[in-house]
Amino acid sequence: MTAIPASHRDILEGKNFAHIATLMKDGSPQVTPVWIDVDGDTVIFNTAEGRAKARNLDRDGRVAIAVQDLDNPYRYIQIRGVVESKTTEGADAHIDKLAKKYTGADRYAGHDPAQTRVIYRIRPERIQTMG
């Protein structure tokens, strides 16, 4: 696993949106802005089962993530990696944690009992930084 540099870890820990690129069935790219979390050198995000990024990652675990510093848009981190794991365990609590980080709300406003939340953990293989 490639280590996340200390110089840019704050971007991942901060209130910065990530853009996650996955591959569609036909090989074309699909990009989605997401809330993220970091655990050691693993990047974590949360989505609902059945969404395009979830379907894409379940089929092909390769992913690219770009996160720009909200306070300095010329500073960013780009990570290319693969899905290390996927779980629904704790996913509802995790989306609430992300809602607190990004919106200040104690609970994710988009909770839908018909949706199953899922956590993806991404193992970085290549990291590039700027600024």
Which key terms come to mind for this protein?
131 residues, 7-stranded antiparallel sheet, 20% helix, 3 helices, alpha+beta
Order of SSEs, N→C?
HEEEEHEEHE
Give the termini distance in whole angstroms.
Answer: 23 Å
| Rg from Cα | 14 Å
The number of strands is 7
Outline, from the CA principal axes? globular
Q: How large is the share of residues in beta strands?
A: over 45%
Q: Kindly report the average pLDDT value.
A: 97
Q: pLDDT below 50 for ≥5 consecutive residues: which ranges?
A: none
- Measured as a percent range, the helix fraction is 10-25%
What class do helices, strands and sheet pairing give?
alpha+beta
Oligomer state equals single chain
Spatially, the strands of the biggest sheet line up as 2-1-5-6-7-4-3
What is shown here, in short?
By secondary structure, the protein is α+β, with helices and mostly antiparallel strands. Helices cover 20% and strands 47% of the residues.
Task: Write the SSE topology.
Layout lengths: L8 H5 L4 E6 L5 E6 L1 E4 L2 E7 L3 H8 L2 E8 L2 E16 L3 H13 L13 E14 L1
Antiparallel strand pairs: 1-2, 1-5, 3-4, 4-7, 5-6, 6-7
Describe this structure in words.
The protein is an alpha+beta fold and 131 residues long. 20% of the residues lie in helices and 47% in strands. It is built from 3 helices and 7 strands. It has a 7-stranded antiparallel β-sheet. The longest helix is centred in the last third of the chain and has 13 residues, at 91-103. The radius of gyration is 14 Å and the shape is globular. The two termini are 23 Å apart. The mean pLDDT is 97.
